[in-house]
Amino acid sequence: MKLFELLQSQITELTDIEPEDITLDTLLDDIHLVSLDFVSIQVALKREMGIQLNFDKFQRDNTTTIGDFVNYVSELAK
Question: Where is the Carrier domain (predicted)?
Answer without folding.
Answer: 1-77
